[in-house]
Amino acid sequence: RDRYEAARGTMTTSSPADDGQEGWVTMGGIRFFCTGDVGELVGPGQLRVIDRCKHHFKLSQGVFVAPEPLEEVLLRAPLVKHVFVWGSGLMKSVVAVVVPNAEQLLLRLELPPKTPLADALGEPQCA
């Protein structure tokens, strides 16, 4: 299970000026600094940083989504050249904007290498 990280120790500054500042929280009477990282426990006393909170977004049903792992999976497909995964709190699902790998697509469609994508797909708006 993923967890949001908070740190405390001699290397984190804490002074009266920190009171009420963004990033500081108090839990059980102890002050912590929220790092903005997402981590997972991998063993006793071992934490692995796996992402940043600012990279996530929440869908309308309250599900948090990390787009980077989805993009990595989509980029493994030989027909995908570029991909962008996006979502918002107003949406129930994510959107993936995909740029095809023209060379691989033309090979798959058994068309000459210099064929324009608009012609290959029969859609002028794909130019």
CATH topological fold name of the largest domain: GMP Synthetase, Chain A, domain 3
Q: Specify the helix fraction band.
A: 10-25%
What overall form do the CA principal axes indicate? elongated
CATH architecture of the largest domain: 2-Layer Sandwich
What is the count of DSSP helices, taking H or I runs of 4+ residues?
A: 3
Total strand count, please?
A: 8
Low-confidence stretches: none
Assembly type of the chains comes to single chain
Q: Write down the secondary-structure element order.
A: EEEEEEHEEHH
Structural class: alpha+beta
- What characterizes the major β-sheet? 4 strands, antiparallel
Mean pLDDT across all amino acids: 80
Computed over alpha carbons, the radius of gyration is 23 Å
CATH class of the largest domain: Alpha Beta
Number of domains: 2
Approximately how much beta-strand content do the residues carry?
35-45%
In short:
Keywords: ATP-binding, Nucleotide-binding. The protein is α+β, with helices and mostly antiparallel strands and 127 residues long.
What keyword list fits this structure?
alpha+beta; GMP Synthetase, Chain A, domain 3; 2 domains; four-stranded antiparallel β-sheet; two-stranded antiparallel sheet
Give me the secondary-structure topology.
Layout (H helix, E strand, L loop, with lengths): L2 E5 L16 E4 L2 E14 L2 E7 L4 E2 L5 E2 L1 H9 L4 E7 L8 E6 L1 H7 L8 H5 L6
What does this structure look like?
One of its GO terms (molecular function) is ATP binding. Keywords: ATP-binding, Nucleotide-binding. The structure is a single chain. With 127 residues, this protein is α+β, with helices and mostly antiparallel strands. The chain folds into two domains: 3-54, no CATH class; 56-126, GMP Synthetase, Chain A, domain 3. The protein has three helices and eight strands, in the order E-E-E-E-E-E-H-E-E-H-H. It has helices at 67-75, 102-108, 117-121, and strands at 3-7, 24-27, 30-43, 46-52, 57-58, 64-65, 80-86, 95-100. Strands 1, 2, 3 and 4 form a four-stranded antiparallel sheet that branches. It has a two-stranded antiparallel sheet with strand order 5-6. A hairpin with a 5-residue loop joins strand 5 (57-58) and strand 6 (64-65). The longest helix has 9 residues, at 67-75. It is elongated and about 70 Å long. It starts with a strand and ends in a 6-residue tail after the last helix. The relative contact order is 0.11.
